[in-house]
Amino acid sequence: MTEKEEDAADWGDALAEQAAAEGGEDAQIADEDDPWGAALSEQADAEQSAEKGAGEAASLDALKAQDSSGKEKVDMDVLLDIPVTLQLEIGRAKVSIRNLLSYTQGSIVEMDRLAGEPLDLLVNGTLIAHGEVVVVNDKFGVRLTDVISPQERIKKLR
User: Fold this and answer.
1) Pick from 45, 34, 33, 35: nearest CA to 8
2) Which of 71, 117, 67 is CA-nearest to residue 91?
């Protein structure tokens, strides 16, 4: 247990002792009055029980479930609600601070891409696809023209 976790556990224990010393029924009221103390105590208890649980490393076993045929399948619902950042890159430009400070309304910034070249779609900074800009009901969108295969994405990470 790290020093920070020990401090949180001690803080939660101290608040629980204080609430208990103030009276049995008042302990529950103290938890309602001090939700941070209750949360810290609960977190410390959870961390202690996790350490006692044999010190196993986290694994994908928690995501796996057995279907009726006995085969394991990954429970993707756990992963589907994780938020990601989507970026659409139309191009890049390197400019000096002198030129940047001289920009005014109506200035044109030249990008490193040609007109009509596909745009890059990045998810959390990783190139996922190429596409082109479309307008649908007065809103911009992207039509994906080429999706990068998972194998190619893994190669680019190395």
Assistant:
1) 45
2) 117
Q: Which residues of 98-134 are buried (b: 16+ CB within 10 A; e: fewer)?
A: eeeeeeeeeeeeeeeeeeeebbbbeeeeeebbbbeee
Name the token pair of 14.
Answer: 């101290």
H/E run at residue 74: strand 72-74
CB 65 within 8 A of CB 73: yes
pLDDT tens column, 110-158:
988 888 889 999 998 888 999 998 988 999 889 999 999 888 888 877 7
**Burial of 148: CB neighbours in 10 Å, binned 0-12, 13-18, 19+:** middle
Neighbours of 147 (CB within 10 A): 13
pLDDT tens profile 91-111? 899 999 999 999 999 999 998
Contact 80, 41 (CB under 8 A): no
What is d(CA 80, CA 85) in angstroms, rounded to the nearest whole number?
14
149/100 Cα distance (integer angstroms): 37
pLDDT tens-place string over residues 43-72: 777 666 655 554 444 555 555 555 555 556
Residue 8 is which amino acid? A
